[in-house]
Structures are given as C-alpha cells and as structure tokens.
C-alpha cells in the first residue's frame, strides 16, 4: 500500500495539463469514483488493524495533496483560458444613438417667448415651490377663495400663515418681478405649473404657462388688446382675428378671456372650434390696483396689464392634438412627429 501511495504521488508530480478539459480528466483519474485515490481509500478496509492508524493518516494526507494540486491546476488553466479568449474588438462601431428632437411643448414655448422678446419683453423665472404670498395673497385672492383649497393646489406644508405649495400659475413670478425690479416692467414668465386635477384628455396636474406683465404710466386696455392681437397674428397667421369676452380673475380688473379665429376653418365652424369659429387661448386683464399696491407700486401713478396662456393648449391648437396626455407620456411615436418641426 505504501508503494501504491508513492506511485500516486509520483503520477501526480508528473502530471502535465494545459487545458481545463485536461484538468477535469485528471480529477476523474485521481478522485473520481473509479479514480486511483478512491480505489486506495477502498482498499483501506483490508489493512490489518495495527497498521490502520498509520495508513489512515497517510491516505488522508494523500487525498488532501491530490485535491490541492488539482485545484491549483484548475485555477491555472482557467487563467490561461481567460488570457487566450478573444480580446474585445475596439474598432467595432458603437451602439447607434439616434439624435433626439425638441419636445413639442418646448417648441411652442420657445415660439411664444421669441414673439414677446421681439416686442421688447424680458424673460423672468421663479421657483416652482412657492409660498402662499406669491401665488395667492399678493394677487388679491380673498382668504376663502376656492383655489386655495386642497382640490386645486398641491400643498407642500400647511398649518402656518404662509404655507409652501406648488405654484398653480406663473403669476407668482410676476409678483416677484414687481417686488424686485425697477419700473417700467415688461416681462414674460414661462414655466411649469401644478394643479390638483384628475388627469384626462383636457386636464392635467402638470402643465406649462407663459404669463406676461406690462406696467408703466398710462397703460390702457387698448394697449393690452393691441399686444394680444399682434401676438395672435405672429402665432396663428396674419389673418387671425381676436375677440375678448368679459371674465373674472382676482388679480385683474377688468378681466377677459381671449379667443382667436379658428385657424382650421377660418371662422366657418369645424369640429376643432366646435362649430363656433373661435378658439379660447388665454386669460388677461388690467392689473388690479390692490395687486400693484401689495408689491409696493403706486397705483395712482402706474397701471398695467397681464395675460396668461397654457403652452399645451396653444400646441394643441397648432397641431390639432386632441389629448393633453400625449404631451407627458414620452411615447416616441408621438415625439417623432415633431422632429422636423424643430427646424421650421
Ligand atoms: N393666472 C391666470 C391662470 O393661471 C392667467 C391670467 C394671467 C389671467 C394674467 C389674467 C391675467 O389661469
């Protein structure tokens, strides 16, 4: 048996393998069910009792040595296999990345901003998380106005005098401008606004606005009408007509809703304008003296007008998209429709 053990050790020493397959074959030859080490272990039963201790130790050692050697050879063969594996081909072309296009809401917002820039308006921006003062209080919202309640406004913190909330309109930026900028003021305020509304084809809890504000001495309703008419003709074409309907906003007096003549049927009546020939595009009015005073502007010396429109609404009219939700779902099939519009 002693000789047999030495024989195995010798074989182990002479073992030369190069591949992972060779190592596996060697493992089977030594340690497999019919392997030589396994055979010796089985022979152990026949060893006379007085020699069992000595051979038991020897056999255990043998098994350990063989196992360790096979393990080492296996690691070696694995390392060689990795080295020999085909290298990455650095000359391979990369994954194709399609160039993106501007979102339809961005395209229309930019168009609106560009028109008013031409008229001499500056762009003003402000925070989306606002306080009660800038969204409501300074804009002459009475304390119990329904827009302050939970069904319309997302509150971030409540319970104190000036709670934080997600702005429901960008009129808050107009207040910040009146508080901080010298007069006269001529700004537009593009931005994202939030309202606690059920999402449907015609309403969404997030949308975009461009609001405008002009304050100077002797600004009249005629100036407002002229500004809106010029804007409408730039946006919807030179033949566009506008009409104003009396309306109500806490921050303007008088207030109006503006309609433009339907650019699809040119006033004849179609399903886009629901047969009326007119499409509503914005709210507007003369800034309420209370609003001027709240921001420290002398309403005896100064007057102004303000207007506000939804960017998605204008985009819907421009492209006859009849479901507001398309603008927020980022469906590539929808967005691709505007790829060429970017360059127009
Ligand atoms: N702030 C109004 C809104 O969000 C729009 C508006 C702005 C109306 C300015 C009149 C004057 O609906």
Tell me what you see in this structure.
The protein has 344 residues and is an alpha+beta fold. The chain folds into two domains: 82 residues; 240 residues, BirA Bifunctional Protein, domain 2. Helices cover 39% and strands 19% of the residues. The strands form two sheets. Strands 1-4-5-9-8-7-6 form a seven-stranded mixed β-sheet, sandwiched between helices. Strands 2-3 form a two-stranded antiparallel ribbon. β6 and β7 form a beta hairpin. α1 packs parallel to α4 and α5 crosses α10. It is elongated, with a radius of gyration of 40 Å. Bound molecules: phenylalanine (PHE).
Characteristic terms for this protein:
19% strand, binds phenylalanine, single chain, 12 helices, 2 domains, two-stranded antiparallel sheet, 7-stranded mixed sheet, alpha+beta
